[in-house]
Design brief:
This is YHYH protein. This protein is of the alpha+beta class and 324 residues long. The chain has one domain. Helix content is 16%, strand content 25%. It contains 6 helices and 17 strands. The strands form 4 sheets. The chain has an 8-stranded mixed β-sheet. The structure holds zinc ion (ZN) (2 copies). Residues 258, 268, 277, 279, 285, 287 line the site of one zinc ion (ZN).
Amino acid sequence: MRNLLLLPLTLVIATPVWADETTDRLAEIAHFFQDATVLNGPLVVDCTLSGGTQTTCFSITVKAEPQAYQPGPWCPTSITDTADAGGIWLQDGVAHDVDGDFIANLSTFYSDDGWQLYDPETGEVRVTDTQTSCEAAARPDVDPEYNNYCVQCLPEYMDDDASMTYVIPLYPQEADEPNPPNFSGAGIAFNGVRLDGPAPVADILAAHTVAPFDDCGGHVNTHVGYHYHAVTDCLDDSPVSAADAPQIGIAMDGHAIYTALLVDGTAPVGLDQCNGHFDETLGYHYHAGEAGSNAILPCLTAQAGCASEEAGQTCDASARPPRP
Ligand SMILES: [Zn+2]
Ligand SMILES: [Zn+2]
């Protein structure tokens, strides 16, 4: 008799109200990443966010390989090359084509005679064309041997099983103050590519190197693979759109990220210091910075989750020291 009485109660406990909501949210997230190369997830996991809040996150493991296009090119090979042969470089809010002219004119562009990125006899551009040279040149303290190089790492330098796992709150949790996206990056694009924090342009330029992004705003480092420092129209074709803008990604704090401009070509109004604002339909959300800004998001307003090259880790974003 007692068991019979307990039975309905057990059923009620097994399907609490939040379960439906979580299932719906997870289905939304799976739909958003339908064009990504997903190795695992999205799954619901426990997590500790950057501000110490323990909550529920989704975890998704992806390969940084966009399905809609082939990443590259980055560095042109000759100072006579046209823009097709190279990517872009961001300076003073503008995305410049890295073509042969750009390489040839760097000393004028930066008013610094120390630039010599090409062989003056042949016009050949000095490109880091091996994994060893790209890793040495991409270090924060650039190997002096690779001063005056156009720096590129190729996707094929990545291990076949390289992946990134993102653990992001299902629902954003308030932070005491906005934080720079310095450790985990800004977020993840719908195609599974990391939306990174700003590229360390000052360090790169100090070594008389440029590390171009392809026309989609991405380049490769051998830790996280292909990742974006700028959002361009390559991400316009999202599976999820609001009335006035496509959603290009999910930020590490769980808020949605939309394109820099609205579909009518106007800029969103009333953005805060992190490029976020509130509207009745979408709630609080971000708009990516303009491609030339070198800041997809200048900061995150809520607590960030984790991004890791290793799958299956428990996320404790509060335990991580800020990246220098
Ligand atoms: Zn980078
Ligand atoms: Zn908006």
